[in-house]
UniProtKB/TrEMBL annotation, chains A, B:
Taxonomic lineage of the native organism: Eukaryota, Viridiplantae, Streptophyta, Embryophyta, Tracheophyta
Record protein name field: Sulfate transporter 1,3 isoform 1
Gene3D superfamilies according to UniProt: STAS domain (3.30.750.24)
Bilayer-crossing regions: 174-196, 216-236, 242-261, 296-315, 322-343, 382-402, 414-434, 454-472, 479-501, 513-536
Biological processes per GO annotation: transmembrane transport
Pfam families linked to this entry: STAS, Sulfate_transp
Naturally occurring in which organism (per UniProt): Theobroma cacao
InterPro entries per record: S04_transporter_CS, SLC26A/SulP_dom, SLC26A/SulP_fam, STAS_dom, STAS_dom_sf
Domain of life (superkingdom): Eukaryota
GO molecular function: secondary active sulfate transmembrane transporter activity; symporter activity; transmembrane transporter activity
GO cellular component terms attached to this protein's record: plasma membrane
Residue ranges constituting the STAS domain according to the UniProt record: 564-687
Length: 695, 695
């Protein structure tokens, strides 16, 4: 300790000359490089590097080493209120939602406000016949896809088939007025239907207490909408980002497998089927019924149409222009099979059919929502979960297509729109609707231009409910099952899983965990696993940040991780450690101990190789974006431990927040300000002469 | 997009000459600097900077700009198993606990293993009479402090006074054999006693069901020990780091205020006192009893001895050598006041006394622990919370004093020791014991050398229990109250709170939240607030990382945050953004949008000033320590959005993990590998000539 401090003092007297130069802002080095840059024609472009003055004259040794061009900057002290508003703004309003309102007259502000809530008022003015043609075709295409899907998805949620159609009538209309995505197709989706079905039926039996079950479904839908709108309104949209991409991939694939397995009931014509959704119960149910539960006529119809649907899908994939083939195949299957059952009376041979589907549009359901009693809380809980999942899906779709067409989606506004749509839906006999992956892709490929395609789809569903529903009476359940199977297969994204495996093994564990959780237990457990692993990853990141030993790249003044750059050479007598994270309470002890362990390892190496002992430890702080009280304590303890070992602590390039806090806590004075440098290279040059004198 | 790509291609043909040079490892620049460094005597020290070749000859323009000394290093592909073990090791075994076992014969390994569990076997061999003298004095001092405190703390936990003494007999002995701290003083502490008292009495009434209450206390103690040992054994010790320093400061101060307020009951001689611990109930209780509840004799005794204790504390603070004055003051108070009450028979005038205190040492309580039934789960829950808090306190103390004397504390081993001590304690009629702040400080100042001071203390407590306890019969409760008040005042650390305020406002909110939660509601609520705010801070950090615009420091090749260094100048036609965090699913969207917003802001500025438009966006990746699938997607989307605007994306200095993943995901090929540079300065020089040609 004492020795190295003495070494420091030795240099101080000789720097008098430099100080007088500096006061005139005339540094020997700056003079030279100023001349050099003046000689150069383009000053801005002039990459005048610090030249090694010692190669010009080695007598200037200490001159160069004690004075540097730039000191570490301390940002100007900020007003507390300003600092606070800046943080709040960056956290909740980073997209600057009020930017267009700035410097506008009051009437204009009012119009802009209305337009912010109903974007249709903005884009409708530029609407044209050309755009309408695109929307019309897209709307008709997604309508033909959604009608059979809706009937099937309603069954997943244990609701009567018409509720699926209801949910494709009202919510898309509301969304068209309030939403900002141009490509999303709104309606019931497989995963949310399954989730809702599982969670609701664990509270109320959907067959015995049909009416109460339905009421709870509307209650959950209401609170799903409230959750979504609240998240958007409070600008907490970033919360859904905590479900990582990897977890979603696994969860979706798991849900798809679960849904597909449950469809075996319809596809094989099994009457006595388990209510559990895990793969083991389902498989027991399927094989337990193999002798007297399977119905060959049902299987024949189901498997042949499933083959047809999968073939249509294959065609759509190989030739992008034929995207409409898989889009209308479900409707064709429904028409053909219904007609076939009707003329052959296959329903009398054990082929199960839809039987009954209510005619007419959505009845009101305002008075059905539980606003009090036991079911209020249960509905709230289910609604929050279903609402979040629906939101995740819709926002992911919105972002994907917005990025493809290069327009901006306002996440928080979008959530308010989705929430409003579900709240209105819950009052008009709809269950949770959201953006559908498969239908949105068809919408996009069919050339939709605006949300008008959703209005077209809604109109077609309206006509269907008013006039055509009785015709669905003879539609066999096996067809609905094969339509659902062919739809959910698209949710199993194997290439994405492979990419995740390649990029990040931990992410893959999250993905696999979510998948297995859903398949072997239930959607809720899968979701829980996904969220837990996602959080664990974040916590791991802040608890065990990376550290690296730096070395000097030959013939440069650049210091880099010696593991990444094997050519980087350590500087004898010095250890340069970079800490790759903010130093917070969660990792301050680890960081301190890790640095001391690096030093211990290095000292052993040095001893073995009979090199000069370590006298300086330089901590490169560039990636340390912030530090808190615990972090400062850790640095103090590090400084003390190093002092006892006779090693000098030196800091390089602390950021604005860090240097501010180092000063506030007086740590900057403790280690002496002249041991904080702008770059590692400056820090190294400050140590080198002392090392030389020592040797 | 197209334009800037063309610009890139223009340069490629001219680099043929360089390639041939490079294949020989002969770069025009490296030749020059090699010569320069050979000319210099000390090669290691030679800080040969990259010189601006253009100042030598501007005709070499494109030569300089397309070839750089070093490429971004891609670390060698790691074996999956190796990568996995490395991560596990760094997460759970970063202290390398098996290091001393390496390359040892089997018998030695066995001895080392035993020593690892019982460190006493290691340090006892070097024990000397000189050390014993220190330990003896320290042990006697802390014993004189602990006896009156223990009796008081037992009352905080709603237990009979002897249980406090029991807990200072067995646990310190166990700790002395297994613990690794030399300075910690083990026994019951105020905050844990209060926490236990509050949580237990919300389950069982401590007066009506005394026996069951005590059984639940032992059950909770047992599970507290199990929790501590398990955390240590599974090497999950880092979990306690999630309670931030700031939160602990607030929590401790709040608990101290709560405890002090509750002592008003004893100090004022109030019989009818509230059971709630929040300040409002307590104050109501105190002032509601002002007319017929207060007892002036009690107040006289209490206040005069409290003044004496506080005065002793003041003496100890002003003169560090007189540390023993406050340490023995409590015992003196007890002796004096007991004698006084005995001769004046003040107990007949309403002065409440201890009345009864069991003689003899700890009875067994193995059969009292609930191993089944309802109370098992309740005891488990209370035990986990109390165990974690006790652990936090003990580990903080251990670390503080270890750092003062510069020895290492092994956190996980320490937890196993504390856990074992509480498990044994729960079977010998002790409640949760841990390290005490005040007694450990006295222990340290009295010159303790090893854990033998704990053994001495334990012996004194043994003698007390065997022979002296009946004498405590006449000790007035008011004295115990004043001893507790004077002890807990030390837990209110105002300077620490001020420092927290100075360093980090968010930390201060956590501190204040915990304080107010404890004072106005209960210890549990305060704890919950502290943990929640601590977590919120971590989540905020990973959700909204900082970004900064970089500029070039004049006359260097160093690029720094322009807010921190106002002299740093932006390069026209370029925007350099630094992202200050790993890019994960939780922030990938924010990072992308924030960068685009920086670009938008900059473009507006540039337009207003009629400067050249932005053609290149350089993202400085040095602080980006990791990236996941969502992060890669965000970069892809950023690349696409920029492409549509005709802005070229360039990356500078990605770390080893990041460059690895950029390659694995093919993003490196997407943006073209020659747009990834070692330094910002390299990246800028690659853009500059193209900008010039444009203008």
């Amino acid at each position: 300790m004492k020795k190295s401090e003495d070494l420091f003092k030795q240099d101080l007297p000789s720097s008098k000359y430099n100080k007088s130069l500096q006061s005139l802002n005339l540094h020997p080095l700056s003079l030279i490089s100023d001349m050099a840059s003046q000689a150069h024609s383009n000053v801005e472009e002039g990459e005048t590097k610090e030249m090694d003055i010692r190669s010009l004259s080695s007598s200037h040794h200490s001159v160069y080493n004690t004075q540097y061009l730039h000191k570490v900057g301390v940002p100007p002290k900020q007003n507390l209120f300003r600092e606070f508003t800046a943080t709040v703004k960056e956290t909740f309003f980073h997209d600057d939602p009020l930017r267009p309102f700035k410097d506008q007259p009051r009437s204009r502000k009012f119009i802009l406000g209305i337009q912010a809530i109903f974007p249709i008022l903005e884009w409708a003015r530029g609407y044209s016949w050309r755009k309408f043609r695109g929307d019309l075709i897209a709307g008709l295409t997604i309508a033909s896809l959604c009608i059979p899907q809706d009937i099937g998805y309603a069954k997943l949620a244990n609701l009567d088939p018409q509720y699926g159609l209801y949910s494709s009538l009202v919510p898309p209309l509301i969304y068209a007025f309030m939403g900002s995505s141009r490509d999303i197709a709104i309606g019931p989706v497989a995963v949310v239907s399954l989730l809702l079905g599982t969670m609701l039926s664990s509270e109320i039996d959907p067959i015995k207490n049909k009416a109460e079950y339905r009421r709870l479904a509307f209650t959950a839908t209401f609170f799903a909408g409230i959750t979504q709108a609240t998240l958007g309104f409070l600008r907490l949209g970033f919360l859904i980002d905590f479900l990582s991409h990897a977890a979603i991939v696994g969860f979706m694939a798991g849900a798809a497998v679960t849904i597909a397995l449950q469809q075996l009931k319809g596809l094989l014509g099994i009457k006595d089927f388990t209510k559990k959704s895990d793969i083991i119960s389902v498989m027991n149910s399927v094989w337990g019924n193999v002798h007297h539960g399977w119905n060959w006529q049902t299987i024949l119809i189901g498997v042949s149409f499933l083959s047809f649907l999968l073939f249509a899908k294959y065609i759509g994939k190989t030739n992008r222009k034929l995207f409409w083939v898989p889009a209308i195949a479900p409707l064709i299957s429904v028409i053909l099979s219904t007609f076939f059952v009707y003329i052959t009376h296959a329903e009398k041979k054990g082929v199960q059919i839809v039987k009954q589907i209510e005619k007419g549009i959505n009845p009101s359901s305002v008075d059905q929502i539980y606003f009090s009693g036991d079911y209020l809380l249960k509905g709230l809980k289910i609604g929050v979960v279903a609402g979040m999942i629906a939101l995740t899906e819709a926002v992911a779709i919105g972002r994907t297509f917005a990025s493809k067409k290069d327009y901006q989606i306002n996440g928080n506004k979008e959530m308010v729109a989705l929430g409003a749509m579900n709240v209105v839906g819950s009052m008009t006999s709809c269950y949770v609707a959201t953006g559908s992956f498969s239908r949105s892709a068809v919408n996009y490929m069919a050339g939709c231009e605006t949300a008008v395609s959703n209005i077209i789809m809604s109109c077609v569903v309206f006509l269907t409910l008013e006039f055509i529903t009785p015709l669905f009476k003879y539609t066999p359940n096996a067809i609905l099952a094969s339509i659902i199977i062919s739809a959910v297969i698209g949710l199993i994204d194997v290439p994405a899983a492979i990419l995740i495996w390649k990029i990040d093994k931990f992410d893959f564990v999250a993905c696999l965990g979510a998948f297995l959780g859903v398949v072997f237990s239930s959607v809720e457990i899968g979701l829980l696993i996904a969220v837990t692993i996602s959080f664990a990853k974040i916590l791991l990141q802040v608890t065990r940040p990376r550290t690296a030993i730096l070395g000097k790249l030959p013939r440069t003044s650049v210091y880099r991780n010696i593991q990444q750059y094997p050519e980087a050479a350590k500087v004898p007598g010095l250890l340069i450690v970079r800490v790759d994270s903010a130093i917070y309470f969660s990792n301050s002890n680890y960081v301190k101990e890790r640095i001391l362990r690096w030093l211990m390892d290095e000292e052993e190496l040095v001893k073995a190789a009979c090199q000069p002992t370590i006298q300086f430890l330089i901590v490169e702080m560039s990636p340390v974006t912030d530090i808190d009280t615990s972090g400062i304590h850790a640095l103090e303890e590090l400084h003390r431990s190093l002092g006892k070992k006779g090693v000098q602590l030196i800091l390089a390039n602390p950021g604005p927040t860090v240097i501010d806090k180092l000063h506030a806590s007086d740590f900057a004075n403790l280690i002496a300000e002249d041991r904080i440098f702008l770059t590692v290279s400056d820090a190294v040059s400050s140590c080198s002469p002392k090392l030389v004198e020592e040797v």
